[in-house]
Specification:
alpha+beta; Dbl Homology Domain, Chain A; PH-domain like; 2 domains; 11 helices; 7 strands; 61% helix; elongated; DBL_dom_sf; guanyl-nucleotide exchange factor activity; DH domain-containing protein
């Protein structure tokens, strides 16, 4: 365990003190290095190194100091202490997910910048993935300790918080992948919102009724604080104070009960129609929940 952790820290040290500085110095990579996604990933790598450097120190004291016996419970206590700090890995995973496509596009130029660097069989990509894999390995270690100790409660607590951290990392990777996929599908202001971290909750095609009673199909995008729709002339509806209703006299009068609903804002209302009743219900639930949590503007 300790040797593996030391090897991990050595690899992170190489990434932070050798590889990243060399890339920063490469004239042909200045556009890449100035990309916010790459800069955030590199900055997060340095934070992970700082955390794990201290973790190695504490594990070394526990294993080799000899003052107190090293037991599974004492090792578990260290991981339980550090688990709340594993959110740094989640941050790294998010930035890694955003930076990876950019780095892959420039892989040949990256290799060129590192050709005279002693990489010890590693690449930027093999070093970069290591922090993503680390917390799940801690969970595996603690599962083995749990078996050896026949369910020691200290080990069980450490495993629970470590597995929670691992799940958060996986979710961050999925969210980054989803956001990148969404960026390919949307344009205009909505694309800028996604790129700057606004949470996109739902997207899909709905029909909005105009003032003449005619429906026009739009792509609707529900963010945590606003609902956007339209194409070239994209519109935004703040969610704070919004309500949705399906069982209204107006909808029944128009014969739209079931697939349509009324969205009421603080200043106006309009009718939206989905393709199916289930889709309408899903949109209503999502808008209602987002509006309930949306901050006042």
């Amino acid at each position: 365990m300790l040797s593996s952790e030391r090897s991990f820290v050595a690899s992170l040290t190489q990434l932070a003190t050798v590889v990243i500085p060399r890339l920063n110095e490469a004239p042909h990579l200045q556009a890449l290095i100035s990309d916010a996604r790459v800069a955030l990933m590199f900055g997060s790598a340095e934070q992970v190194l700082s955390l794990n450097g201290q973790l190695v120190h504490d594990l070394t004291v526990a294993v080799e100091d000899g003052t107190t016996p090293c037991t599974p419970a004492s090792v578990a206590a260290i991981f339980e202490q550090y688990a709340p700090l594993f959110s740094i890995y989640t941050t790294y995973a998010t930035h890694y997910g955003h930076a990876l496509p950019v780095l892959v596009q420039q892989a040949e130029q990256v290799d060129l910048a590192l050709r005279n660097v002693s990489m010890q069989g590693q690449t930027l990509f093999s070093l970069g993935i290591m922090p993503i894999q680390r917390v799940p390995r801690y969970a595996l270690l603690l599962r083995e300790l749990l078996k050896e100790t026949k369910g020691d409660p200290d080990v069980q607590r450490a495993l629970a918080v470590t597995e929670q951290a691992a799940a958060s990392i996986n979710e961050a990777i999925r969210a980054a992948e989803t956001r990148d996929e969404m960026l390919k599908r949307v344009k205009g202001k909505a694309q800028a919102l996604i790129a700057t971290g606004h949470q996109l909750l739902r997207t899909g095609a709905l029909s909005k009724m105009d003032r003449n009673g005619n429906f026009k199909r739009h792509t609707f995008m529900l963010f945590a604080d606003q609902l956007r729709y339209g194409g070239h002339n994209e519109r935004s509806v703040p969610l704070h104070g919004c309500t949705v209703a399906r069982d209204t006299f107006e909808l029944k009068r128009r014969g739209l009960a079931g697939t349509a609903f009324v969205l009421q804002t603080t200043t106006k209302s309009f009718i939206v129609q989905a393709d199916t009743e289930d889709d309408a219900s899903a949109w209503m639930a999502a808008i209602d929940e987002a509006a309930r949590l949306a901050p006042a503007t």
